[in-house]
Amino acid sequence: GTRALTSFSCCRAPAGGIHLRPFLKCSDSEPRSAAEAPRDSWGKLYRFTEVFFCYRCGPMVLDALIKIKNELDSTLTFRRSCREGICGSCAMNIAGGNTLACTKRIDPDLGKITKIYPLPHMYVVKDLVPDLSNFYAQYKSIEPYLKKKDESKQGKEQYLQSIEDRQKLDGLYECILCACCSTSCPSYWWNGDKYLGPAVLMQAYRWMIDSRDDYTEERLAQLQDPFSLYRCHTIMNCTRTCPKGLNPGKAIAEIKKMMATYKEKAAAA
Questions:
Q1: What average pLDDT score do residues 90-114 get?
Q2: How far, in Å, CA of 159 to CA of 45, rounded?
Q3: Residue 14: which of 116, 125, 94 has the closest Cα?
Q4: What's the burial of 109, exposed, middle or buried (CB within 10 Å: 0-12/13-18/19+)?
Q5: What pLDDT is recorded for position 244?
Q6: For residues 61 and 63, what is the distance between their CA atoms, to the nearest angstrom?
Q7: How far is the C-alpha of 194 from the C-alpha of 188, rounded, in Å?
Q8: CA 37 to each of CA 23, 72, 106: distance values in angstroms, whole numbers, following the listed order
Q9: What residue ranges define each of the domains in the chain, with the CATH number in brackets?
Q10: Where does the 4Fe-4S ferredoxin-type domain lie (predicted)?
Q11: Residues 6+ away with beta carbon under 8 Å from 262
Q12: Which end of the chain is more exposed for a tag (fewer CB within 10 A), N or C?
């Protein structure tokens, strides 16, 4: 009566991460309780050796994390919400790259261990939960909303734009602020207190080119210091890692071109 079932094991990593290992195991028994899991060399941290039957677990890494939390260790902490790549809550470092746990499939390679950690170079609140306070403060600083110099019509009529102007926002507005790109950027690692990072800069560009916004020059002036914009060295990790397939690196390059024109205009005035 035994059956070969594709499964995976996991362990809590020293830095708050999780290791998933797919393997084949012949078993017709249910997993042991978490209380029976042996302790490892890290002392108080459990190393789980339970068998997870994949027909009872979804194909995504988030499914595995939810199963671990529900059945093995209720203290395991991570963010998640939509489970379909829309909210950005479950961003984490999986198998060496920043991505969303809800859209990242469990590696079927039976010889590999999938290592899961919080987003890199961020203060960790607990386990897989990074502190995004600075990231959100930077996003707030760019005033990510329409600003009009004539406020007499505010709230009284729609601000219309042409189809062509609307299309300019494609590839920008889809950003879900998951922070995968910013936390993959070495420049942001070392200058995160001053450099706005690719996610926030792409959002700044989104408002700069919106035909309905009247504060493009003021938005550019805000980025003139040596760090806010110019710490970008076109490493392009941001574009490679974006789970939505966006191109923050290109948006930053466009801001730099706009900045050059803005400075020339200011110098000639």
A1: 89
A2: 56
A3: 116
A4: exposed
A5: 97
A6: 5
A7: 9
A8: 18, 9, 22
A9: 4-130 (3.10.20.30), 133-268 (1.10.1060.10)
A10: 165-195
A11: 217, 220, 221
A12: N
Q: Identify which has the larger pLDDT, 23 or 62.
A: 62
pLDDT tens-digit readout, 163-215: 999 999 999 999 999 999 999 999 999 999 999 999 999 999 999 999 999 99
The answer to whether 181 and 200 have CB atoms below 8 angstroms apart is no
Calculate ∠ Cα 241-246-249, nearest 5°: 75
> What H or E segment, with its residue span, contains residue 19?
strand 18-26
Q: What is the pLDDT of residue 18?
A: 61
pLDDT at 44 over 80: no
pTM score, two decimals?
Answer: 0.82
**How does the average pLDDT of the chain come out, rounded?**
83
Residue predicted with more confidence, 82 or 54: 82
d(CA 19, CA 33): 19
Per DSSP, helices labelled H in the chain are 61-71, 133-141, 163-167, 186-191, 197-208, 216-221, 237-241, 248-268
Residue 126: beta bridge partners?
129
Amino acid letter at 239? T
The contacts of residue 149 (CB under 8 Å, 6+ apart) are 214, 215
Of residues 30 and 110, which shows the higher confidence score?
Answer: 110
235-246 pLDDT, tens digit per residue, is 999 999 999 999
